[in-house]
Amino acid sequence: MKILYPFCIFSLIAFTGCSPKSKTPETHKPEAGAAQKVITFADFKKIKGVENVQDVPFELFTKLDSVQFFVAPDKNAAHLKIAYNKFDNYYGFEEFDDFYAIHYSINNVISNSIEAFVLKSEFTSASELTLQGVDLYQIRSSMLKGAQDDKNKSFSRYGTITEVSEQEFKTASQNRTDEVLVKNPKVKLKGDDWIYTENNKETVILQHENVSTEDGRLSNEYIGRSPYLHSEVFRENSVETSDVYYSFYTVGASAEFQMFTGGYPQILPGKQWISYIVSNSETGSDFGVGKYVAQTNLQEDLLYVNFTNFKIADATKAFWAGETFYAEVYPLNSASSKGKKQKAAYLKITLKPDLF
Questions:
Q1: Do the strands 159-164 and 147-149 form a parallel or antiparallel pair, or are they unpaired?
Q2: Could you report the per-residue pLDDT of 18-33, keeping only the tens digit for each?
Q3: Three-class SS state of 284
Q4: Model pTM greater than 0.85?
Q5: Are residues 307 and 156 in contact, defined by beta-carbon separation less than 8 angstroms?
Q6: What is the tens place of the pLDDT at every residue in 78-117?
Q7: Which residues contact residue 355 at a Cβ distance below 8 angstroms, ignoring those fewer than 6 apart?
Q8: Which of 57, 93, 192, 249 has a CA positioned 20 to 30 A from the CA of residue 322?
Q9: Number of helices and strands (H, E) in the chain?
């Protein structure tokens, strides 16, 4: 007890000395001038509003549930907290040290637009978007050997997809196993037609009639020759629509249309595969794989997947290295801004060995 007694006395004194403060709640009084009045959208500067997105220097995006609108680019300025709405647009027009100046349409009514200032810490510019934290496996729909699947929302059923470094992408491209399409000198543009010339005989390569539209005449651009398919490949599109096809023509006694892909083709002779990857006009990107059937000169659809969280940067740079597919992509909503390029990312897709 002689050893414990001094400690108990000290503890009692210390506890007694502190108890008055612990029983009284601490009140934080704001510093002079820190109190802010309650504001509404009416306190912000009214502006014309954005009618053409092409006029916007950069767009902003956030992952927060709520964001703050300031009336001036000053952290002590009056501000308003609003709930994030995925249908809202945050158009950036100017950049400060800690803020972006934005144009915002209240309830998406252009005629009811304001200028506000938002914290950089709460938003990311479209040019700065990355794939960090993005679910690459998320898909909207898919099709395996003709069987449509709108319920499965993950690519894991078909294989793996991962982000890789630019260096890994470049190194893998040196070992690509798909064909590189090279233009055939026998195919030349003559007037409005592409002409295949052999032994002084000219054959007109006509566009496939089934992809013509009511909106206007299709135009075609020669891409190159596939030695494996013995075909000339054209990019066919209309200035009136967004539909684009890559068509394959076998030139013999006539220029015969054989098949097409929905994007720039990657042809893998070792697997008899014809694949493509292209940005979807609605959301994300489309990835398709078909098998070439030599007996019929046609292709059999094997796989179609609509990825939802990235767009394709340049489909002509996509390639196969062995049985792994590589593509350069951009994060969804990514875009260049004045003086800043959007950040590219690189993906590799490996299909399950027994998938087909």
A1: unpaired
A2: 333 333 333 333 444 4
A3: coil
A4: no
A5: no
A6: 999 999 998 999 999 999 999 999 999 999 999 999 999 9
A7: 144, 158, 159, 303
A8: 249
A9: 2, 26
